[in-house]
Design goal:
The chain is of the alpha/beta class. It is built from 22 helices and 12 strands. It has 2 domains: 26-333, ABC transporter type 1, transmembrane domain (ABC transporter transmembrane region fold, Up-down Bundle), CATH 1.20.1560.10; 349-431 and 548-631, P-loop containing nucleotide triphosphate hydrolases (Rossmann fold), CATH 3.40.50. The protein is 60% helix and 10% strand. Mean pLDDT is 82; it is low at 1-15, 456-488 and 626-631.
Length: 631
């Protein structure tokens, strides 16, 4: 029996209603590509006019033939004109597809680029509340629906409106009596279309949300593949995916059932109009009120009127889908970064203090106990600070406040004499080279993973102006900066030097293609120690002003650790560093050690002073059999 959790959670989620007001956010894009849309609509209307001319040629040919007195030339001339008109139709259809679909594709590309750029700007806490699979769904599936709504959706709207109005005018002008009776089913069709549109919007939104849930399951499963295989839980994740996959199928089947009823019913009602035309028009031909050619043309026009009626269903479907999807995209785009640069960033002052923390207390949102409490530390320039403490003592939180991954209270954390909240965010973070605990690596070559440590882009306002070809684009500075950026080329000697410091160069022969060896996602093909050493190389290659190693040597052996620390301290002599570790051996050559306990500083001093103190540092050293920290 299936467990109901996936479906139940989907049903209990707070419903979001799609609204056509969501399309307001697309006005700047539509305005920028208005020339393409205008030319596309001109070509589309030309095709519609050409299509409405063809029944007149047919009417003329039928009347000539039915008269019984005609020559081959009398039939050939309408046929030639019809062929020429069909050539215009073919060319027009190509051109409106080129202009309108081309514009919608360009808008989709810009939207996806803007969404990706906005996601990179958002703060860390945003990702704690939004799953990656859901965000990927919004950037792919939802944007596809948006593109269809401003592409084929607009085509169906304009085409259907022009065709329906023009045909109704023509048939009423040609035979008011027959047309008046034949259009009786049309109001009912209009009412059904309106009801259909509302139902489609709700069901499509549910299908998109279910797709996001399925994407979440896939992303989490493959990201944690090692754990899945280690615990032999493949069957459990297969079942979990099957549940969400079935939910996605069921949500789409609701749409399929709706379409399965709608289109046959519209076809049935449209068929009634054809019957009325055939019956009433036939009587009018017998009476001599209209000619046989008039009846054939009238019947042809009513057959052409079926597409605008059916197209109205497509329009409602695409617009409702687009509105639902655009609402999901706009929800992300409206999210604001909780941590951002101030409107007027200040410049750091000249000081001999690289980092200063003054009575820092910090509590995570929703937590009952503070992660840091009344913490005060001063780290002079050129000195190395070691941080030791039990798990959960606040070590990593302290580092997050320095680079503003979390926002500390004002005037509590200072870098180079300036409070972190007064810095430009990118300038602040460029002061640091951080090796985090998880040592995240990208699915790229070893060389490129190390090169990521360089300051990525150097650009000027002049270059922005030169490369920003679409200067009114909502992408703004982000797009022009990326296009005008000069990636700082690294010297192979710098890569080799960084690799030598981290000792990853000793493993170079084990990599199949040396520096160009592509590692698996998240460094899947490497050992924990190799990942940490590549991450250290990445942090030191740009020679940052302040280097932070957050438990970055936990996966390497004692001999390798000693070699790395010796090379690191030699290379960075006279530069500032913060080293966090659970090993006393890692901290034996630092200038000062801060021992944290429950967010407070329990001990502070040189390694020798803390050893003599006999506190937590000394007990940890004894347990690790390090009687002399300077050895």
């Amino acid at each position: 029996m299936r467990k109901p959790s996936a479906r139940a959670s989907s049903q209990k989620a707070s419903p979001r209603r799609s609204s056509l007001r969501e399309f307001k956010t697309l006005f700047p894009y539509l305005a920028r590509y208005r020339s393409r849309y205008i030319w596309g609509f001109i070509c589309l209307i030309t095709v519609d006019v050409a299509q409405m001319v063809i029944p007149q040629f047919i009417r003329r040919a039928v009347d000539v033939i039915s008269s019984g007195n005609f020559t081959f030339k009398d039939v050939l001339i309408p046929a030639v004109w019809m062929t020429a008109v069909m050539g215009v139709i073919a060319l027009g259809r190509f051109l409106w597809r080129y202009f309108i679909h081309g514009a919608s594709r360009r808008i989709e590309t810009e939207l996806r680029e803007q969404l990706f750029g906005h996601l990179l700007i958002l703060s860390y806490d945003f990702y704690q509340n939004h799953k990656i699979g859901d965000l990927m769904s919004r950037g792919t599936n939802d944007l596809n629906a948006v593109r269809e709504s401003i592409g084929m959706g607009l085509v169906a709207l304009i085409d259907g409106t022009v065709m329906a109005v023009s045909i109704l005018v023509i048939i009423f002008a040609q035979d008011f009596r027959t047309a008046g009776l034949a259009v009786i089913p049309l109001p009912l069709i209009t009412l059904i279309i309106l009801l259909f549109g509302s139902a489609v919007g709700k069901r499509f939104l549910k299908a998109q949300e279910t797709y996001s849930s399925m994407s979440d399951t896939v992303q989490e499963t493959f990201a944690g593949l090692r754990v899945v295989k280690s615990f032999v839980k493949e069957w459990w994740f297969i079942k979990k995916f099957a549940d969400t996959n079935d939910d996605y199928r069921d949500a789409n089947m609701e749409l399929v059932k709706l379409f399965g009823v709608f289109f046959p019913f519209i076809t049935l009602l449209s068929g009634f109009t054809s019957l009325i035309v055939l019956f009433i028009g036939g009587i009018r031909v017998i009476e001599g009120s209209i000619s046989p050619g008039d009846l054939v043309a009238l019947f042809r026009y009513f057959q052409m009127l079926i597409w605008p009626l059916m197209g109205a269903g497509f329009v409602v479907n695409m617009i409702q889908r687009g509105a639902a999807s655009l609402g999901r995209v706009n929800e992300v785009m409206k999210a604001k970064a909780s941590i951002a640069s101030p409107e007027s960033p200040k410049t750091s002052v000249e000081t001999d203090r690289a980092v200063e923390i003054r009575h820092l207390s910090f509590t995570y949102p929703g937590a009952n106990t503070p992660a840091l409490e009344d913490l005060s530390i001063t780290l002079p320039r050129g000195k190395v600070l070691g941080i030791l403490g039990r798990t959960g003592s606040g070590k990593s939180t302290l580092i997050k406040t320095l680079v503003r991954m979390v926002d500390p209270p004002p005037e509590t954390v200072f870098v180079r004499g300036l409070a972190v909240e007064e810095w430009d965010l990118q300038a602040l973070r460029s002061c640091f080279g951080v090796t985090p605990q998880d040592s995240y690596l990208f699915s790229d070559s070893v060389k490129n993973n190390i090169q990521y440590g360089f300051s990525s882009f150097l650009y000027s306002e002049k270059e922005n102006a030169e490369v920003n070809l679409e200067k009114n684009s909502p992408l703004g500075v982000l797009r022009s900066a990326v296009r005008g950026a000069h990636t700082q080329n690294s010297d192979p000697a710098l890569i080799a030097k960084a690799a030598e410091i981290s000792s990853i160069s000793r493993d170079l022969e084990s990599f199949p293609k040396g520096w160009d060896t592509v590692i698996g996602e998240r460094g899947l093909t490497l050992s924990g120690g190799q990942k940490q050493r590549i991450a250290i190389s990445r942090a030191v290659i740009s020679s940052p002003e302040i280097l932070i190693l957050d438990d970055a040597l936990s996966a390497v052996d004692a001999e390798t650790e000693k070699r790395i620390l010796t090379a690191l301290l030699k290379e960075r002599q006279g530069k500032t560093a913060i080293i966090i570790s659970h090993r006393v051996s890692t901290l034996r050559n630092v200038d000062q050690v801060a021992v944290l306990d429950k967010g407070r500083i329990a001990e502070y001093g040189t390694p020798a002073e803390l050893t003599a103190l006999g506190g937590f540092y000394a007990r940890t050293a004894a347990l690790q059999q390090l009687d002399r920290p300077e050895d």
